[in-house]
Each structure stands twice: as C-alpha cells, then as structure tokens.
Design a protein that fits this description.
Length: 63
C-alpha cells in the first residue's frame, strides 16, 4: 500500500471516530506549555486529553 493510500485510510478512520476541537492560546503561553511538555516527556495533545478525561470524571452528575 503506498503512503498516500495508507494516510487517506487513517484520516478516514480518524474523521469517523473523532472530532476536532480547536483552541486559541496566547503565543507565549502555548510555547511555554509545549516546552514544559517536551521537558517532561509528553505532548500537549496528551496532556489536554488527560485533563478533559479527568475533568469529566470528577464532575459527572450521577443520577
């Protein structure tokens, strides 16, 4: 399978299972966040996803 077909297949899967959520940051804040993530061996995406999962768990309203 050539790289373009492989990428197209992956993109199709991502778009069918995930949605995009854009955020705006001040440039200095984003650069600091990215650098801290790099320094501790993680990525900004990983940390934002962990925050969302934790936030949702901690704030669920149980019926």
């Amino acid at each position: 399978m050539d790289d373009k077909k492989k990428y197209d297949s992956q993109l199709k899967h991502l778009r069918s299972k995930y949605v995009r959520f854009s955020l705006d940051f001040r440039p200095d804040e984003l650069e600091e966040f990215k650098q801290i993530c790099k320094d501790i061996g993680t990525t900004p995406t990983t940390e934002i996803k962990k925050f969302v999962r934790t936030f949702c768990e901690e704030n669920k309203i149980h019926n």
